[in-house]
Specification:
This protein is mainly beta. The chain has one helix and 24 strands. It has one helix spanning 93-102; strands spanning 32-33, 41-42, 50-54, 70-73, 83-87, 89-90, 111-112, 114-120, 126-128, 130-131, 136-146, 153-163, 168-179, 183-192, 194-195, 204-210, 223-233, 246-249, 256-261, 269-274, 279-284, 289-293, 300-307, 313-321. A hairpin with a 5-residue loop joins strand 23 and strand 24 (313-321).
Length: 323
């Protein structure tokens, strides 16, 4: 489990760009009965296969008997016969303690609904992510969302490169998307991916969907449906429009990062996220200038979003912190 939960995978039609199929079971058509919980189905080919995995195994009485959170759904999928349905529920204390025992860094709430990419071998060893052969530019999917009151669904992506010197995976890029709005019909969404290093070649992608907020006040019975996922591969450092008007320094940052914006648009607010989608802070920009104290930030890649005073998004980009 620890290898899975690092501090931090078809062709999509009808309006999305032509994409390359490198995500196993991208349309969620293949399902396998859970080995310990035969009443539950998982969207993969079973042990020893790479694909989508979940926490349904903790429904087993020997692992705490937590509620099933991922379902094989055949009610009006976007495409094909099935889609994945995620319903947030609260894990039993026994199950939650078991995860924390195997991985003390497990930083998701006890109330959750998660689906993620991984390989689980026949011995039970978990290897996070799916193998990829190029640097993804973006990741797209269709979704529906029915929050139970006020809550947030999300998709977070980590792109990794194996470091043959340190013999570990380096996080070189990622992307974040989240929404709290109800979506009763299939809606296309794309997560843009940003890279910290243009020289590193990606070899692994870790994708995590969550039906509830993964950082604050998650609700039970949030429902998120996902179908027809795929990625678009090309380019590096795909910063959004107006990127030439945003100057960040020093980058990488140590104790602080400065934003200086020039051009025609006026920035009112900046949000900063870590690569897992955690909101690090919301900052008001004055006269298109902003300094953010990064002393409490860990070494890593961070994403920012800029908004004008009406709340319209102007820009999205990235910076790094090195301690």
């Amino acid at each position: 489990m620890k290898k899975l939960l690092l501090s931090f995978s078809a062709l999509v039609i009808l309006g999305l760009p032509r994409l390359i199929a490198q995500v196993p079971n991208a349309g969620f058509e293949q399902w396998t009965p859970n080995l310990l919980v035969p009443t539950a189905n998982d969207p993969n080919g079973g042990l020893g296969t790479t694909g989508w995995w979940d926490l349904n195994v903790f429904n087993s009485s020997i692992l705490g008997g937590s509620p099933i959170t991922v379902f094989k759904d055949n009610y009006q999928p976007f495409q094909g016969t099935y889609c994945a349905k995620i319903v947030s529920q609260t894990m039993s204390q026994t199950s939650f303690d078991t995860i924390k025992h195997f991985d003390p860094s497990f930083n998701y709430p006890q109330t959750n609904g998660l689906i993620f990419t991984a390989t689980i071998g026949f011995t039970g060893k978990v290897t996070a992510g799916i193998p990829i052969t190029n640097n993804w530019k973006s990741f797209s999917f269709y979704y529906k969302y029915f929050p139970n009151g006020s809550d947030t669904c999300s998709c977070t992506i980590g792109i990794y490169h194996w470091n043959s010197v340190t013999h570990q995976r380096d996080l070189i890029g990622g992307g974040i998307w989240k929404s709290g709005a109800q979506q009763a019909s299939w809606t296309p969404e794309t997560v843009n991916i940003f890279y910290d290093s243009a020289s590193s070649k990606a070899d692994t992608a870790f994708i995590l969907f969550s039906a509830a907020s993964i950082y604050s006040n998650p609700k039970v019975n949030d429902s998120m449906m996902i179908d027809s996922s795929a990625y678009l591969a090309s380019g590096i450092d795909n910063i959004a429009a107006h990127s030439d008007n945003v100057n960040l320094y020093p980058n990488p940052a140590n104790n602080q990062i400065n934003f200086a914006v020039t051009g025609q648009f006026k920035v009112g607010m900046v949000e900063v996220y870590d690569i897992t989608g955690k909101l690090m802070g919301t900052y008001i920009m004055h006269n298109n200038l902003l300094t953010i104290n990064t002393q409490s930030f860990n070494t890593g890649l961070y994403l920012y979003k800029m908004y004008d005073n009406t709340g319209a998004q102007l820009n999205v980009g990235k910076f790094s912190v090195v301690k």
